[in-house]
Model the fold of this input.
Amino acid sequence: MTTWSIDRTIRFLPFAVFVATFDRAVIAPMLLGMGQDFGVDLATITLSASAYYLAYGLAQPVWGLVSDRLGRIATMRLALVLAGVLDLVSVIPMSIEPFIATRAVAGACMAGVFPTAVIFIGDTVHDQRRRQPAIAGLQTGVALGLTLGTVLGGIGIATIGWQAFFVATAIACFGMAWYVRSMPNPKPGPARVPALESFRLVLSDHWAWILYALVFAEAAILLGVFALVPASLESTGTSAAVAGVAAAGYGIAVLLASILVRRTSLRVPADRFLLVGGTSATLGFGLLAIHVSVLTVFVSVALQGVAWVGMHTTLQTWATTISDRARATAVSLFAGFMFLGNGVGASVAGYVLDFEGARPLFLGATVGMVVLTAASVISRQRYEHRLV
Done:
């Protein structure tokens, strides 16, 4: 049996995050082929992805409470096993309605992986300066999951079929759950507060509301608007395949930026990461507001990838400091607001792109990033005084 230290466990967590991200990212490029198999239009089959994403976001606080009782790694194992079971159920022949319901439950189950990884780091890495590189390391798994999920999903739907990916992800979930069975499983001791009290502790802190507002806005722009970047390129006559390849620059940038953040976070203050990240996103969206082409999209999404790592890992690390007694609740609510912002941002961005065009969409995102960057930098600088 493998012997796990805390450091080794933290180094392994990005692999679990990779599986969870891949399961989420591989769906989008397969929707058209899945719709053909079910005999439904794209709008209908897209409901299966929307249900997955919505359940994924809403389940975050629930998993935070579960991890307080079962422990962080035990909760992650449970989430992996349940998600694997639901992925296998998804390949059973059925009509579209139960399929949509099955994918919603699968999203709710897989939602337990990423937040418990962040909570584990918050519990075991007590020096805040060392938390950010550990959390940035999780973005390596995110980057690989996004990139491989997008590329392989597009290729696989035309070759081995969408069912093969659900089966492969299920096997990966089961294998990982078995492999990490002897990991250390920290959980709150006798000082653990009841569920309602943990929510009261977090939601009575005005800094928590400021942080959740920031991550909501960040996700609305950096995830919601980003989701429409390939569509904006396709609207110029570019093929979906080329648009997908151009957007893959995002995953590459996230991977490289994660390495840089891990190496510099001990000497670079948190507000500096927010400033650099926000500036990168502003430049990226500003470039698309001027002109949308394969080259500008590639450069823009790369800048957005740098922004996601610089800003989001800083905000995520911030979430682990809101309340030591109710850390699981604080982190899971953070994730919930992030996915809520993602959904709202994508809906608004889709409306603007359809009725106003690409230039107003990206100009609005540029202005939004300027405001968000200023608000996040100033808020973080003031929060630092609380920690002194």
In short: Residues 358-387 form the longest helix (30 residues). The CA atoms of residues 22 and 145 lie 4 Å apart. The mean pLDDT is 83. DSSP finds 18 helices and no strands in the chain.
